[in-house]
């Protein structure tokens, strides 16, 4: 059913639904009006997405009775900072949004994070909806309520947990993605396969991701929704979703955020898999299989940064606690574990996973 509409509940408080299918942006007003009421809605987006979808979304919302305003900011991870957050908050205030109004995040992961964080802190919290336009946002960042901005010390160090009121994932948006942006999302989807089960991971090995992305997105969202329901504030199980991210975030930081998130996470996945296998932490050989899957989907499996540089960049990671840092270790496809290691052990652990 490539064109079918799939709806996945996320049973947190308050609960919401993730709807996945084609043509959803053109019908977003009718979908959201019964949920939100016909209030004022501020669409926040970037200058890559706006020319593609802003008119469609605005027309649909206005046609359903919403009063619509919008703000467009420059695209890119480099704008995911406190200065941009301040611009968004000033815009919401200038438009006189009230606590009964709403924000819509139209875009990829950066837009979703920025708009969600702005909604979380404006007037101490107003509702927001996610309208993801990239594969990465669809399979991962639009679901679960994590919102954040980067600080000079590291990625996502200021933020808030704030669940959306709804997520509408229009799979038609994937048709406009450049191959490297699509690959960014594939990295997060592959991560989910490594965490969840063999059958999902196999979809990325046999090409199903491009053949029926809606089905794959639904599988990834279903898995993440279950984790979030059990551990919304990331006190335990939800930390597993950071697989590949300690090294991945370090690669992003070392590159000055010129390497996109998905590509950095892909390299982080391959590095931690090779390291875990060499250190005897895996139940079976998995590193070569993970690397082959990443390469098949146009993703890197290594980095030019040294283990020392990556370890230093990782010292500001949120998963560090005192002198220890918690790593997510793949034991086999479909089973990972959290392993706390001393910060001093991080350089040799990373080094074991680097190629060459």
What Rg is obtained from the alpha carbons, in whole angstroms? 20 Å
Q: Give the strand line-up of the largest sheet.
A: 1-2-9-6-5-3-4
Classification by helices and strands:
alpha/beta
What is the typical, i.e. mean, pLDDT? 95
The count of helical stretches stands at 14
Describe the fold and architecture.
The chain is built from 14 helices and 12 strands. The protein has helices at 28-36, 50-63, 82-94, 109-121, 135-141, 179-196, 198-205, 208-211, 213-230, 245-254, 261-278, 287-296, 307-314, 346-353, and strands spanning 6-10, 16-21, 40-46, 67-73, 102-107, 127-132, 146-151, 154-161, 166-170, 320-321, 324-332, 335-342. A 7-stranded mixed sheet has the order 1-2-9-6-5-3-4, sandwiched between helices. Strands 10-11-12 form a 3-stranded antiparallel sheet. Helix 3 (82-94) crosses helix 4 (109-121) and helix 6 crosses helix 9 (213-230). It starts with 5 loop residues before the first strand and ends with a helix. 51% of the residues are buried.
